[in-house]
Amino acid sequence: MVPSSEKIRVDKWLWQARFFKTRSLSAKLVTAGHLRINGTRATKPSQNVSPGDVLTFPQGREIRTIQVEAIGTRRGPAPEAAGLYLDLTEKQDHVPQNPRFEGKGRPDKKQRRALDLTRKQSAF
Prior knowledge:
Strand content: 15-25%
CATH superfamily: RNA-binding S4 domain
Order of helices and strands: EHHEEEEEHEH
CATH architecture: Roll
CATH topology: Structural Genomics Hypothetical 15.5 Kd Protein In mrcA-pckA Intergenic Region, Chain A
Oligomer: single chain
CATH class: Alpha Beta
Helix content: 25-40%
Number of strands: 7
Mean pLDDT: 87
Number of helices: 4
Largest sheet: 5 strands, antiparallel
Structural class: alpha+beta
């Protein structure tokens, strides 16, 4: 890791910390104006961050709040990347929007006959 007195571009740091798969994706987020550094909107991917800065940005369906703990020298494995930040995101109860597969599968012939009987009886 690099000493904490140094700074790094925000798009490069987001990529090294494995929040985005490519550096260009992290740069697009910043240029679109979706990133806040210490509460101030960042518009340039070349803006520097240093340890202690708080980043707020959307990722997927949630808003992430991250505190920069260290500056990395490379995009390493996930455990190494997790040491670069402290996650301040509030945990929310995840309620799925759409029904999910329950593992029941398709009805067999006996179950289809029972369904057909209930449909015929409800038609009358």
